[in-house]
């Protein structure tokens, strides 16, 4: 488990010192190190320069086991090392889905005290109830270029042309990747601005890059030359990537995920220290009325917390948590003193390949979840991840909502955040 | 730079094997390891069990240099190791602010190809323009408990009582931490639900936990007993934490940050490969009309990307990126063929202490930014971080908007994301 | 032009006095007058009772020429008379549309000083520019019943059944009126709530009632009995009728209308006392940035004003102005010192038959606009009305935006609202 | 009750014919009739010309009893007559408020069948329950000019200046009317755009014009000259007038109104043909979940309907219904099988003087409601109107929500809208 710093042996010390000096003196830019410098070594040189400039140590940043060569090429320019984010595990989380059926342990990368413990408590309740039902639908990855027309009539002709040539357009987009399939094109026109929201099935990839490349191809090589209508921005914010937007809530984006569970009174009491009446009232006043009072697009307790933790652990794009937070949590009375609880995540962009999924620890996290993309079943791995996330989010919602009813939110933060509990113990359950 | 695994020597191998077996056989829960087990060792035991259960390796997850003892107590229960997120550096970013004045290098933890390179290009343009002006205002960390009344008249009496006892309330909240100061209480009442949005200055902490603890104290020990009005949820979603909500956009939350720069035609051309006319049109069709068409709360290109990268690198709560994405980017014609560009971040919760800021790599990242909390100047360190983030976000917006105008968004993704460029080179500038 | 009060002669005075006394003494309810009492007479009796109860006169309320019999049966229960709303006329408004081509004079019922004069000024500018281009699309009238299921799996079966039986559903809905055609059904499911948004073409009717009746029929007689899934509310607020909602902005409702015009510098100066530069800046700071700052769903100056005036004059449902206000106004630089201006009204529910369109003055207003429904061309009359409204709204936007740039908004209100100008004069143009 | 057409006798027939011919031939504009022409006569001339141009009759439009002279000067330019909107009455509506205490009959001007009958039914239930509790708060009429600065630093200086000179600003605004009082100024700044949201108490006036005039005065004569900062639009859409906007929902505008009632099972059954269980479920699925699914800003059944009917009857600005529709309706279980029901109207701009309130029928409607402005108690009359509207809206919500639960929405529309019931009868109760 020792970190091997190959770089240190491949470059002569003098050369290294020289490069560091040049960076410090601003005679050289951080992204202009010699192309033949190994990535580890380049990172070391950059760190050393920064240490000198800022008068600080970057020792830990330089302590990593990921493949620097690959990361600096595929994930992160001006690479200097890695941030270490603590990972905890929850589970087993019992799920009844189409892509996951059984128990999983879910890794969460977080720095927020009590989050893992709390979500884990939700898993216990779900497990005792026989598991959560989870389902995923393909909402599709979207990209919406913005075009400029001269007004209504040209817009109408342009949109008619698009409709008439949808097959040709599809032929071009779908040729850019064997995993990308154009699902449809949704137009919107206001004044002289026209947006075409391309929606793609991207298999096991989250797909934002594939969608961008496909749109670029068809826009630059076919739509613009054939129609003479100029594309002003390949992303016209009608996509909508990483902004909270109603079009995403209404139409979905990435995966659309549903998760639900029914909990009896005994389970509520034993595992969540609460009752149906209390949970339902907290749901009503917080997730419904409070969200309405706030003009919120998210009607939930803390979906973003669970999402960001699983996203970072599994190499998803953490900026996509913005979209995931649009979710809706329901808690309704069910049976004698029990509840029905659900989460609805209409906009969950996730992938099992590409992005950060190939990085060392992220790859391990996906394996831990049983996620191994299979070219024979494109999309199944990403859907499995989506179903698991749906279940984890449900666990997180249940536990936090229950915490409100037993007044222990602040206390958990106080104990855990300030480190008053001995390691290895967990206040929940 | 070797990883020291202290745990391996402190516990007898037999004991370890036994615990692993118990976890695998579900005779023991992952959070119920013996309290005297060192954190490193507990993590190792959990990883070993998971490796056996899932038939996979967690080697890299176990390769970390952070203080496991501390992380497992303060940041992450059921600790098993660390996720390694690649870190790149941008800069120097030249800023003219009240808490930062001069050049800084900003670490970004990301797995998204081209993000660091692109933001770095924005820094170059800003630097050549003499730097960005940045300002921060204290919007205040908020927490809004939800109460239940019997209706209008009781609500009116309750709110009158709150107004009359604001000094007493402040005395109680402010006694919970010497860094917390109650700024004001904003009520909202709908039907039988009443929300009190407490707003605090939390010094150098992001403050969500401090605010929660202060609210818990005053609600449970003073407001509820004195008024007889029940608090149903300590967080009533009128706070609003980690959901996109208009109350946050209108009132602000955490820090309210402004950043701006004026760029002449020559700089636009040399550093951003664009012109004022193109940038302004892309701004109009994408950030304004496209966002309007989408029903978006965020009128910007990709604020969430830069935020999440700096947040992860510096130990901020990545789920708060949801709030940060509410920002507004402006690009306006300015002078002969130049532009004025700005970002407005009304809802940026950041801190220089607490949360993930004390973790090994995160702490280094803060030091790199010159962020060292000073008890004599509470709040100054967090505000410096906020100003720097404002500048980095501006750099990111400029570069991506310029990329749209020169059609190179997709191409950058194609080259960088697929790893076609040699390490150490950077396509920008 | 004398008002004939037929009622006064048909009922004996004693009988009338007796009924009035009973109403005043609360021995009889206002809606329980004898069924054989003519509507005029019933109105008179109610007015007399109210006059006595409130100690006030309702003389003017009783001065009307509309058909009381018909109005009290079809439009307004407990009928007591009519509100008189002043009507002014604007025009000629020159329009180049598919359903209107040429000049029209548009009646506006309003009590807001300066509104007619200002909109009329906009007409002059449009006319001089050769007219506005207008287009209408059938967005469809919608009604979305809310259903209750037991959760995900039942919802999926329910929605599959709906998809499989769409033809049968259509057969039932379309049999309820020969003018109603089901276009499609859009589902939405959150937790145990399922919404089916039925979208209909309703010919020349605005269609809310037709849609409701068709939904009632198919839900009660087919969907509920066949699936066993209970409909909880025939309108589930996913329709969305008379509330500002993103689903309507995204999907449209009623008619989707586009109107635009290009104005040269000379026209801007002569008719609107402004310049392109000033108009474009006002558009940017008010309709775009101001609306964004406000969290507004309407990006326009005052679409609701023109809509409500034309709606009341022509017998449309004034509560639908809520939906119409979602519109977006654009003003862009165009040619040398000119502008392109447009309005986009995605959610304009209007009809040429039904509702208030058959009332005396409303009917005249429609005739003045050349709107005479033709069973051979169902829908054409309503679309003509929609195109005209689009043009009138554009005129209103242009004039008010121009007023801001010449600082004369307040002055117009001051002069006109306070009655300082002699009748017959008009400050505009 | 005869209509007197004074105009017809004051102008010589030849002169009239001549003017009509000029209008028809477009040798004269409709707003350019001789200044000494009496308003009645001018209206007649315009109608005659329009009748000739459009080949239609405007007989009913010319049948009115309002004061044409006054209306054409103060309410409606290019005056041609009046639209007659049927008025029905509901009540008695029993209210327990601060400005109304007891029973009132409320006039509603509407063309929507079943609306009056349905709202009346709600009144019966409220009356039997002892009346609704109503309260009004002064949210204040707002106007927000938009200014242009050069960026952050100038904006900060500008806002500091505004804060420092608030007393001087108040002295100027408050001198423009003895009924206007500046409450406060709320700033918002994005990029180079700055908005100052002035909030005024306008006594018994709705106040939009008073606020505009006051802002114009202080901006043109004080703020602009003293600061050198240009006002780009006197209304910067951060006001926000007649658009659905979150700032209004959060901050309120005009009056903020609360109304509530508790209904026992017997009343629910007898008067509303429903039960608590059914009402509460319809509330949950429609007003809460359906509105959430739709991305709606209005969480209610049909507030806009009742508002528009009372607004037109009483001379309010019907375009303000857009703002009123932002309201929230609550229905909660209460006691054994009963419910608590409430409406919250944060944005209700109404007045008892000015606007259309002085017109003949509108004035009568206000008198019927006991609304007579008293200079000794400025604001009390407008607040009485607001409280009454709150009660009427509550009645409307209750009845429609109940109708959903008994499946009689469509049937009521069918019967009433198609005129199948004899006059004088009412299907409700």
Q: Give the SSE string of chain A.
A: HHHHEEHEEHHEEHEHEHHHHEEHHH
The dominant shape of chain A is globular
Low-confidence runs of chain A: 1-8, 420-429
Multimeric status of the protein: homotetramer
Q: What composes the largest sheet of chain A?
A: 10 strands, mixed
| Annotation field: number of helices of chain A | 16
- Rg of Cα set of chain A: 25 Å
SSE class of chain A: alpha+beta
Largest interface pair: A-B, 171 and 172 residues
State the share of residues found in helices of chain A, binned by percent.
40-55%
Distance between the termini of chain A: 34 Å
Give the amount of beta strand of chain A, in percent: 15-25%
SSE topology:
The structure is a homotetramer of 429-residue chains.
Chain A: H1 7-10, H2 13-24, H3 39-54, H4 68-74, E1 79-96, E2 101-109, H5 115-128, E3 132-143, E4 146-148, H6 152-164, H7 166-174, E5 181-190, E6 193-201, H8 208-227, E7 230-233, H9 246-251, E8 253-263, H10 265-272, H11 276-294, H12 303-314, H13 321-324, E9 328-334, E10 338-348, H14 360-368, H15 380-405, H16 409-417
Parallel strand pairs in A: 1-3
Antiparallel strand pairs in A: 1-2, 3-6, 3-8, 4-6, 4-7, 5-6, 8-10, 9-10
């Amino acid at each position: 488990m020792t970190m091997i710093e190959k770089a240190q042996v491949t470059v002569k010390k003098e050369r290294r010192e020289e490069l560091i000096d040049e960076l410090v003196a601003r005679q050289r830019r951080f992204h202009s190190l010699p192309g033949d410098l190994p990535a580890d070594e380049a990172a070391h040189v950059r760190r050393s320069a920064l240490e000198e400039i800022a008068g600080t140590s970057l020792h830990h940043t330089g302590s990593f086991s990921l493949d620097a060569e690959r990361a600096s090429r595929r994930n992160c320019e001006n690479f200097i090392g890695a941030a270490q984010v603590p990972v905890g595990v929850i589970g087993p989380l019992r799920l009844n889905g189409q892509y996951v059926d059984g128990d999983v342990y879910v890794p969460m990368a977080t720095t927020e005290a009590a989050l893992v413990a709390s979500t884990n408590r939700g898993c216990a309740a779900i497990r005792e109830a026989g598991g959560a039902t989870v389902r995923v639908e393909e909402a599709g990855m979207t990209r919406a270029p913005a075009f400029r027309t001269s007004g209504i009539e040209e817009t109408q002709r342009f949109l008619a042309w698009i409709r008439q040539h949808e097959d040709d357009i599809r032929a071009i987009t779908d040729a850019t990747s064997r995993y990308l399939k154009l699902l449809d094109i949704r137009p919107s026109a206001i004044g002289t601005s026209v947006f075409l929201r391309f929606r793609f099935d991207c298999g096991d990839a989250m797909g934002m890059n594939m969608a961008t490349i496909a749109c670029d191809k068809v826009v630059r090589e076919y739509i613009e030359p054939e129609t003479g209508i100029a594309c002003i921005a390949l992303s016209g914010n009608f996509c909508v990537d990483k902004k909270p937007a109603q079009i995403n809530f209404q139409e979905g984006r990435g995966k659309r995920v549903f998760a639900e569970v029914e909990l009896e009174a005994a389970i509520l009491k034993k595992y969540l220290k609460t009752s149906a009446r209390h949970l339902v009232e907290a749901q009503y006043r917080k997730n419904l009325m409070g969200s309405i009072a706030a003009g919120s697009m998210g009607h939930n307790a803390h979906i973003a917390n669970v999402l960001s933790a699983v996203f970072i652990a599994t190499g998803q794009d953490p900026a996509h948590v913005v979209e995931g937070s649009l979710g809706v949590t329901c808690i309704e009375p069910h049976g004698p003193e029990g509840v029905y609880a659900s989460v609805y995540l209409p906009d969950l962009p996730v992938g099992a390949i590409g992005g950060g999924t190939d990085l060392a620890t992220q790859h391990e996290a996906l394996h831990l979840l049983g996620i191994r993309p299979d070219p024979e079943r494109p999309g199944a791995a990403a859907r499995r991840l989506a179903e698991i996330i749906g279940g984890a989010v449900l666990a997180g919602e249940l536990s936090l909502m229950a915490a409100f009813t037993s007044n222990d939110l602040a206390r958990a933060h106080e104990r855990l955040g300030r480190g008053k509990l001995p390691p290895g113990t967990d206040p929940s359950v």
